[in-house]
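The instructor's notes for this session suggest beginning with a concrete chain rather than abstract definitions. Hand out the sequence below and ask the class to guess, before any prediction is shown, which regions might be ordered.
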Amino acid sequence: MSNAQLKLVRKLAQKKFRNETKLFVAEGLRLCEEVPPDQVEFGFFTREFVADERSKALIERLKILQEVPPSTMEKISDTQTPQGILLVVRQKLSTLEEVAQKKIIVVLDGVQDPGNVGTILRTAEAFSCGVMMLDGSAEIFNPKVVRSSMGAIFYLPLAVTTCDEFLSAMTSREILAAALDSSAEIYSRHDFSKNQVAIVFGSEAAGVSKKILDVAQKIFIPMSGHAESLNVATSAAIILSEAIRQVTVSMP
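After discussion, reveal the predicted structure:
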């Protein structure tokens, strides 16, 4: 491994350098198996990693990888217990038009926790939704987002945009916002099958921004326990599950 590559991997721990280079890091067998080979810039593995047929198959598929000693892998890894494989990957995002081809779009409006963002991306991919990330949300290529997405970022139609651009692009689509107020409708009573929809989930602390709430139909998940609210990733899973159920049932 060259010193330049070593320094680059270390720099990619910082958002500034990920933005400048349009690269990010993926680690671990399961995640690296999901990376499209044509997005791999370079990568490294340890001899100990190649211990079974699954690992060997991955190394063979990604032919450009270099072997490094475990001590080097520990220096460049972002995890406490490196699995022995690390890829530097080229960032790839979709356009708003590509995302808008999906019947259901998940919109993250200031969702800041990387774990929540990654989990929502994984859920959205499982239900074949598109995703738009608005201002103030966690960076898509943050290592924690990448890991918790479990590879979903490589398959999702996924765009980053501003609130104004999002609203301009959604003029012909129904906008729903997960929000609890007197005008909100119970989510399961809403007809998700009728129109193309964009479902907005807001920040953990402040919720959906006022600019979106002013034009959206509000929906909420009823609760009977003592909790004031649900985790945003949990809320997204519940609402998306019902939306997809309705769409599937309505199909001829």
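Then share the key points. Residues 15 and 140 are 10 Å apart (CA to CA). The mean pLDDT is 93.
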